[in-house]
Amino acid sequence: MDISGVFDVRFDPETALRRLTDVKEVSSCLPNLTELQVFSESEFTASFKLDVSRYAKEVSVGELARLTARMRFRFLRRDLEAVVLEGNGRVMGSGIKITLDFNISPESPGSRVKWKASLDLGLILRLLGSNIVEKASREMAREVVECISSKML
Questions:
Q1: β-bridge partners, 6
Q2: pTM here?
Q3: Residues 53, 81: Cα–Cα separation, whole Å
Q4: CATH homologous superfamily of domain 2-150?
Q5: C-alpha to C-alpha distances, 129 to 55, 72, 95, 107, 123, nearest whole angstrom
Q6: Cα 112-74-100 angle, rounded to 5 deg
Q7: Given a cut of 80, is residue 74 above it in pLDDT?
């Protein structure tokens, strides 16, 4: 599943790049972050809680509504043309993969950032149902990117 969008920031592309690749800034936007371990400026692990209950009102999903994700993230690319952050991990024993792509371009008076989130949620789709997972994933991805963009205003 892919989700994309655009946001403008007041910084020049070089400053935007530094902000987008700051592990502490980026990781602070993960929902309900419970644990963070930074290995380098390019790699970290994070545990965070995902609450899908607000998207599953029409279906009783019980304990499945509050999930813990454990993921290892690393920047695959960090230059003015693109920032690519990839995360691999597990939720409920199921493998998941998240890739965030950011493209930065100059846009007076600052920069324009085009983003795309690619989500591979594996068996989670079958366990909770594709409607619930897609709705929750889209909203959570937007919330993470909105948090990142708000740190750049």
A1: 114
A2: 0.86
A3: 38
A4: START domain (3.30.530.20)
A5: 11, 25, 16, 41, 10
A6: 35
A7: yes
